[in-house]
Amino acid sequence: MSARRGTEGGTASRHVLLLNASYEPLTTVPLRRAILLVLREKAEVVHGDTAGAMLHSATTALSVPSVIRLHRYIRVPYRRRVPLTRVALMRRDGHHCAYCEKRAETIDHVIPRSRGGAHVWENVVASCRACNHRKADRLLDELGWELNVTPTVPRGMHWRLINGEHHGDPQWAPYMARAAA
User: Fold this and answer.
1) Degrees to nearest 5, angle at CA 41 with 66 and 19
2) What is the pTM assigned to this prediction?
3) Do 123 and 104 sit in the same domain of this protein?
């Protein structure tokens, strides 16, 4: 299938919101995976692309989906804590350094691991390279530094569901609001 661009940036890196049969958001999937789910009749398109973009093959034309829903319900195991990943950490901290507010490029342990600090949400923050390098394996008190934010565990179902990124499609908002509640 080839894509006719109806939006800026095309469709190659586009993601689609995948809903469970009960309309609960499960995750985001690449456009290719979403199309396969629809063509194999495992999912249906709930919302198409707002600009009306279409995918064409020799025999079929299909609107680019924004939100799809599975036909069968998938049971999702409940996790007590949101998994600590680099992507989720950067999202929690808004891609800003916890020490100087510049653009964060790396992560830092507030209490260094070499001094017994754990790799947990409450001890890890986003950091720019310069601050991370200056801090090294020292404690904040030794440097006279303070954190601009208090590192906490993210709360809400959407932290577990959306692979760490929200692509900003306005058609996702009603489903995301349900997940956050």
Assistant:
1) 40
2) 0.60
3) yes
